[in-house]
Amino acid sequence: MTDSCPPSNPKGPKTYDRYDAVSYTPFPRNIPLARRHVARLAMDWGHPHAAGDAALLASELCTNALLHGCLRDRLFRVETSLTGTTLRVAVTDPRGERLPYSRLSTTDDQFGRGLLIVRTLADRWSVEKLTVGKTVWVELDVQGAEYA
After folding, report:
1. Which candidate, 90, 79, 92, places its Cα nearest to that of 18?
2. Which of 25, 78, 82, 88 is in Cβ range 3.0-4.6 Å of 18 for a Cys bridge?
3. Edge-to-edge strand list for the sheet holding 134-141
4. Which residues pair with 124 in a beta bridge?
5. What is the pLDDT of residues 102-124, one digit of tens each?
6. How far apart are CA 20 and CA 17, in angstroms?
7. Alpha-carbon distance 28 to 13, whole Å?
8. Strand partners, 77
């Protein structure tokens, strides 16, 4: 497992077997909506075994975007894609100057474990700075689709 890797094909257009993008308003009620949507996509795309991890990762990235990256009246976007044997979840928010970082947390802390969860579950993750904002993405390695 690695903590980061460069985007898959920086020189050419991105090609996906499956792709979905949804923008959400920066309100806590949208985190479970995004989590369920990502889980449903993983199942619909033939990877039900990855749905739980993908949903938890989406939830963590969305929560971080909401707490640290969103601005009032600016949406955050959740992109889910499947390429070959990789399921990718990416969350984009408007605050590129606020990059994620790991911090130590004690047993009494209410916050501070999100990136630990991301590093534990994801096969790869990284942050891409944008002209405006940033995208934090995670990838899960998945086997061939399990279509019924």
Report:
1. 79
2. 82
3. 18-24, 76-83, 86-93, 134-141, 124-129
4. 139
5. 666 666 655 555 777 888 899 99
6. 11
7. 33
8. 23, 92
